[in-house]
Amino acid sequence: MIRRYTASADTTIVNAYQRNLRIRGTGSNAGRADVLETFSIYGRQAPSSSNSTASQELSRILIQFPISEISSDRDAGSVPTSGNVDFFLRMYNAPHSRTTPISYKLVVYPVSQSWQEGVGLDLEGYTDLTKGASGANWMSASDSAAWTTVGGDYIKNDASIIYEQTFDSGLEDVELNISKLVEQWISGDTNNYGVGVFLSSSFEAYYSSSTGQNTGSIIHNATGAQVSYYTKRFFARGTQYFFKKPVIEARWDDAVRDDRGEFYFSSSLAPADDNLNTLYIYNFIRGQLVNIPSVGTGKILVSLYSGSATNSGPSGSKLTLYDGKTNITGGYVSTGIYSCSIGIASSSIKTLYDVWHSGGVEFSTGSITPMTFATSVSSKQPRYIMNITNLANTYRADQTSRLNLYVRNKNWDPTVYTVAVADPESVSIHSASYRVIRTLDNLEVIPHGTGSSFHTGLSYDLSGNYFDFDMTLLEPGYEYMFKFAFYDNRMNSWEEQAQEFRFRVEK
């Protein structure tokens, strides 16, 4: 799952010279500009009798995010608890006609005091001098408070919440996992004043003061660069481009992997992980998922039974499981949902019954038709026919929809009898991912997220594959398409399927 939180304030602050190369734009603000800029210029003014070092000109970015919205979503259960979600800082390169530096590092520091966004626009001549007496600049955080250190005040004594990214071509976007900092903002352990984004000290311009202190608006940097890095730009929150605004992107794996429809007996043919099957129960009360009161968010026990003579329900004693016990401990997944991982040795049993219980009370009984692993004399890989069975033509921009993916083997070869009495059997793909493309310009707006967070993974259960999609991620007024990729175990790679599934998003 993905949620995005767009920046609530951003601006650029500079100590660079105005066009006359005599006056610095230290009082300038760019809070309403549609781009953000960071750079370092060394030596546009040579050393002089009054100044023994060549000039230093710097630009830094300040950016803040609505952490209260993340907290509210977490309280509502729509964002997972700490440790179960990753938060990424995303900033997008803004192309321009000037030189873009190569081979440098940007750093991200938490800002340590409040600041104002302001309404300035001028990033060329730095003439918007904190319009309306409001807005951060190089010297001041707000209309009533100066920075303790010119260029902004930052938390620099906690390496765990300081981040950096290397830029090779200089055109890269920012994509940094800042989960620990976001969690500290949410908990209140660190005040949310946003972050500063700028060149690391070894790439900001050299300047040496005899006293080792900042001199006016100039930052003492005796280990800095004596070459220029001009200029790196990102789109600001005021940009017209919907998908280019700076965001904190929450990513987590919300896929349900319910093996009830493909439950396998344990076998020496399979590795240990594949000899375990994951089962789920869903406690719906009046159409809503609700925790079982006596279980809450705690543990629940699961046992397997064989069937009665008519196979209409569980019968006899608990069966011995893979670990020699008769109960397996399951646990809470999310509101009203519980799961367990369970296995049992191969036998002649045609139907298994899973009974979920705790404290002598039985809560749920399900049935399972187990299967047996088998080898094959053919190495042919399956190919698939797919359809999103409930895909609408149009969605509202505020919708979250559950989409059901029907998948069958392309080489399904029914007899005359099976055509008459049965639909093609649906298969569940255990490793499947989606991406989203805007069809107008083939812009990939959500790429496959198949890394550690697996935030574009599909769920599966007895009925097949499915996923939940938040339409707020997409700009209204356009047509988009879903494409899917399945993991190929033989090739150890993902294989994208050919089918495209198109839809529109409207306001």
Strand-helix topology:
Blueprint: E1 2-6, E2 9-14, E3 35-42, E4 56-64, H1 67-75, E5 86-91, E6 104-110, E7 163-167, E8 174-177, H2 179-187, E9 195-199, E10 229-235, E11 247-251, E12 277-282, E13 284-285, E14 288-289, E15 299-307, E16 314-315, E17 328-334, E18 337-342, E19 352-358, E20 361-368, E21 384-388, E22 394-396, E23 400-409, H3 416-421, E24 432-438, E25 443-446, E26 459-461, E27 464-470, E28 478-488, E29 493-496, E30 501-506
Parallel strand pairs: 22-30
Antiparallel strand pairs: 1-11, 2-4, 3-4, 3-10, 4-9, 5-8, 5-11, 6-7, 6-9, 12-18, 13-14, 15-16, 15-17, 15-19, 17-18, 19-20, 21-23, 23-27, 24-25, 24-28, 26-27, 28-29, 28-30
Give structural notes:
With 507 residues, this protein is mainly β. The protein folds into three domains: 2-251, no CATH class; 259-368; 384-506, Immunoglobulins (Immunoglobulin-like, Sandwich). It has three helices and 30 strands. The strands form six sheets. Strands 2, 3, 4, 6, 7, 9 and 10 form a seven-stranded antiparallel beta sheet that branches. Strands 12, 15, 16, 17, 18, 19 and 20 form a seven-stranded antiparallel beta sheet that branches. The mean pLDDT is 93.
